[in-house]
Amino acid sequence: MAKAPAKPEEGAKEAAPKKSGKLLLIIVIVLLLVLILAAGGVALLLLLKNKGGGGGDSHAEAPPAAAAPAGPAKIDLAKPPSFVTLDPFTVNLRSDEGDRYLQTVVVLRVSDEKLAESLKGFMPEIRHRINLLLSNRLPSEVATVQGREELASDILDQANEALGFPPPRETSSRRAPPTGPVQAVLFNSFIIQ
């Protein structure tokens, strides 16, 4: 009589379900990890998009000043800009046309009050650069509106450069918008004598 060969078969059957059970458990764990990672990635993208990060478009939005068309800077009306009034400037203009003086009050427009306060630390250098610009002009150059606008543009570049922001490159027909914290230069008074 043969001994019960059924016992080895039962052992073989028991080993097979144990291996497939472990394999099934590993597959389930891997799938759960993939789902958790995917959900985390989607949540991160949504969070970045809500904060203005733009998710996948971040490469396109990285250089907004270079890609933006030239034109007036957009201002958020809910958050009005701050204005920093500089002490009056009185300079001798270039003497090619006789002794002429310029007295002006310059105002810098910045995006917020915190930035306006931090400008005070850079004010000696900003005033120095503006003083050099003003004293290097001819009276005929600053007598016209176009000359004053050009002077304001040069002052804007110099103020931003003093803060560590290089001036924007000019396009063929228009000037690029400012890239630094100083958004505009305004003249409260402008007297040539």
TrEMBL record:
The alphabetized UniProt keywords are: Cell inner membrane, Cell membrane, Cell projection, Chemotaxis, Cilium, Flagellar rotation, Flagellum, Membrane, Transmembrane, Transmembrane helix
Record organism: Azoarcus indigens
Family, as annotated = Belongs to the FliL family.
Transmembrane portions of the chain: 23-48
Q: Which Pfam families would you find in this protein's record?
A: FliL (PF03748)
| Origin: domain of life | Bacteria
Q: Where in the cell is it found?
A: Cell inner membrane; Cell membrane
Keyword Phosphoprotein annotated? no
The name under which this protein is listed is Flagellar protein FliL
GO CC, one annotated term: bacterial-type flagellum basal body
Membrane topology per the entry is: Single-pass membrane protein
Per the record, the GO terms for biological process are: bacterial-type flagellum-dependent swarming motility; chemotaxis
> Cross-referenced InterPro entries, in alphabetical order?
FliL
Q: What does this protein do?
A: Controls the rotational direction of flagella during chemotaxis.
